[in-house]
Design brief:
alpha+beta; PH-domain like; 3-stranded antiparallel β-sheet; 4 helices; 7 strands
Length: about 140
């Protein structure tokens, strides 16, 4: 399937580090918390999501980058989570339950328009399953 198209590219919001930044601000008379805050900022800044019509590609890492692909036809279920704080800033997290062995549950954290992203994932999961003739069977 060479017709892979990018649907969405995004990164998490730095608001995920708000607690860390507040603690580091309160303890700023110590030098170590400042470096911790800078490190946390770089961690979030280096996390990138790319949603295509076939997979979700996640790239992370400050010094050493790691890229993981989650095939969309393996997604079993999605969940939209918006805490009160996230709703104040129109953010949310999309939780994906997958049949992938290395990533059975994956969270796209603190992104803008999470309901749109969740709907895009759902739409493309159904398209891929139909195209690949994949069916989900649960054994209990």
């Amino acid at each position: 399937m060479a017709d892979e198209q990018t649907i969405w590219i995004g990164t998490p919001s730095q608001l995920t580090n708000l607690k860390v930044f507040l603690i580091c601000g309160l303890l700023s008379f110590l030098v170590v918390p400042i470096f911790w805050a800078i490190w946390k900022w770089f961690e979030v800044r280096s996390l990138n999501y790319e949603l295509t019509n076939q997979r979700l590609r996640v790239t992370s890492g400050v010094f050493t980058q790691q890229t993981d692909d989650i095939e969309l036809y393996r997604v079993k279920d999605t969940l939209l989570v918006q805490t009160f704080f996230q709703r104040m800033f129109s953010l949310g997290s999309v939780v994906m339950i997958t049949s992938d062995r290395t990533t059975p549950e994956f969270v796209i954290e603190s992104v803008a328009d999470p309901s749109v992203i969740r709907e895009e994932i759902r739409t493309h999961v159904e398209e891929l399953r139909e195209r690949k003739r994949v069916r989900e069977v649960d054994y209990e």
